[in-house]
Amino acid sequence: MTDRLARALGWTSLALGTAQLAAPRAVTGLCGVDDAPEATTVARLVGGRELLHAALLLGAKNPAPWAWTRVAGDAMDLGVLGRAAANRTGARRTRALTALGAVAGLTVLDAACARRGTAKAKGPLQMRASITVNRPREEVYLFWRELENLPSFMVHLDTVRSLDRRRSHWRAKGPMVDLEWEAEIIDERAGDLIAWRSVPGKGVSTAGLVGFTDGPGGRGTVVDVSLEFGMRGRRLAAAVARMFGEHPEQQVRDDLRRFKQVMETGEVVRSEGSPEGHRALRQLHQHPAQPIGGRT
Amino acid sequence: MKANVWAGRNHVEVRDVPDPRILNARDAIVRVTSTAVCGSDLHLVDGYIPTVEKGDVLGHEFMGEVVEVGPGVRDLRPGDRVVVPFPIACGACFACEDGLYSVCENSNPNAGMAEKLMGHSPAGIFGYSHMLGGYAGGQAEYVRVPFADVGPIKIEDDLPDEKVLFLSDIFPTGFMGAEMCDIRPGQTIAIWGAGPVGQLAAASAFLLGADRVIVIDRFPYRLRVARRTGAEVLDYEEVNVLDALRDMTGGRGPDACIDAVGMEAHHPTPAMYAYDRGKQATRMETERPYALREAIMACRNGGVVSVIGVYGGFVDKFPMGTVMNRSLTIRAGQCHVHRYTEPLLDRIRAGEIDPSFVISHRMPLSEAPRAFELFKHKQDDCNKVVLTP
């Protein structure tokens, strides 16, 4: 819904921008400012700006937050039109006030869209990914159930230590601070699923669910994972965001690829360009594809 | 050690780089005894394959002697002589179990990069961009070979390097190109591109029972080599290929067409060439697909178009209407080399074929930059270069 509003605002920007560039005099006339010598230039500049809004709102995959650029533009327009109305009388003043009203109406829509767009982005960080592992379900389940195995393929984890059958202590590498929390298994059905969550009140708020089903045609095991990180406290939120980088889903997919490699080939596969194996960050900053040197 | 690295567009350099070491338990280190320059290396050097970086060691056709094995490799030991397939395959995933080694699900550590361009990731390839793994290549004195218990094929007799080296890529690639045509007796196969892959595809088509093979190119020296396989040849700068093929096949068209050219094709009409060349140079399309377009137009109704020439991204003006309305089948793929190494080695041993007929130049590795120049600009009748470290 918010995205549809954002797209509609994008089309509005496109129409306004095109009008202002193609017929600036008609626009300045409608706004009652056609008596000012610089009015057509300003209309053209604003038209160019509107096309920029249009490009962002119609081109972005997730357009709603870009409505903030329109809000900024609205503030500019309201200022200009307000001054124009104050300095004019008669029919021109009426037209300027009408334009002001129209822009104010759009501003309300823009702000609502932008706020909802950004609010959506601030919820708990949720990530899902699936992979098919060419091993029997029981074996795949057992490897995951041994939670101490998780750091061998989940790159953000440092260690997981089992405290007892249900409780475990987790440590993650943060960029500034290490994060530590205690988790408990809240549901488990042998060979089918494992669900866990952090113990309330101990720092990090996180939960995870992994399901195992037989692959199509009885070949391998489908592993579906969803992870959730709550965002309590700014510092924690920032640390978690940095831990997962720009593309959290990509990280979980990479985690699952490593998991698949460990299950199918025995270990994480390394190349000269990615000596650590799959890693979202490494995909942006590769080592050259030449031997990395060092000791044998 | 010395290695041939990519130093920028149209620029390769032999440099000193660190010796490789074991990174995974199933790795082996191979001392390279022979390596070759492949036409697909030219796409990298020309800068048309994304995610190649300065300093990357090139080369995916190589063989040599095992000098070290990781603790997970049981069936190879130092001293073994091996040819190494260019795709890297784990041997244990869904794709490998089905014989689709070049789309192994585990061998590309940069699968996320490939997914963005291609939807899903194929296998890693030696010396062939970071999107396809970021593996150091084999135009070097030594190379690390992952999954050494799956890919390398041991050469236990005294067959010389030159007879078996091309099991690493171009012989299986040409063979798979012919195999995808589902050749039946009496059939005519047309092949675009008389480079080494096209030449070996022609030879393979005859091995698989083709009646006639017609090879299309514009370089007389390449067509001469192709003719030696028994193929007829067409120079597309001399004749209109579609008309000529129609005439040669009783108006029906070849039963199957093989594109052994790929993304940097040439077109005899300057305006047509300039159109795609310009779009490719400005990165508006990644391919110049003349051979593919023509192969599709030429193929007989219900025939097969087999694509073994390398493409990197997106094609414009693709004649989908002719594919659909004329019931064509398009088959394509990086070669699943592992499938073919044993049977093709047997054919070489039996004397059915000697793939070394494609070799025109032999040079030391240190002259790799000159080899690339000759090969790229088709100078000195350069058909295939073998480098020895």
TrEMBL record, chain A:
Residues 266-296 are annotated as: Disordered. It comes from the Bacteria. Residues 133-256 form the Coenzyme Q-binding protein COQ10 START domain. InterPro entries: COQ10_START, ORF3, START-like_dom_sf. Residues 267-279 have a biased composition (Basic and acidic residues). PANTHER family: POLYKETIDE CYCLASE/DEHYDRASE AND LIPID TRANSPORT SUPERFAMILY PROTEIN, POLYKETIDE CYCLASE_DEHYDRASE AND LIPID TRANSPORT SUPERFAMILY PROTEIN. This is SRPBCC family protein.
TrEMBL record, chain B:
It comes from Actinomadura fibrosa. Its cofactor is Zn(2+). It comes from the Bacteria. Its EC number is 1.1.1.-. Belongs to the zinc-containing alcohol dehydrogenase family. Residues 196-264 form the Alcohol dehydrogenase-like C-terminal domain. Keywords: Metal-binding, Oxidoreductase, Zinc. The lineage of its organism: Bacteria, Bacillati, Actinomycetota, Actinomycetes, Streptosporangiales. GO terms for molecular function: oxidoreductase activity. InterPro entries: ADH-like_C (IPR013149), ADH-like_N (IPR013154), ADH_Zn_CS (IPR002328), GroES-like_sf (IPR011032), NAD(P)-bd_dom_sf (IPR036291). It holds the Pfam family ADH_zinc_N. This is Zinc-dependent alcohol dehydrogenase. Residues 26-153 form the Alcohol dehydrogenase-like N-terminal domain. SUPFAM superfamilies: GroES-like, NAD(P)-binding Rossmann-fold domains. CDD domains: FDH_like_1. PROSITE patterns: ADH_ZINC.
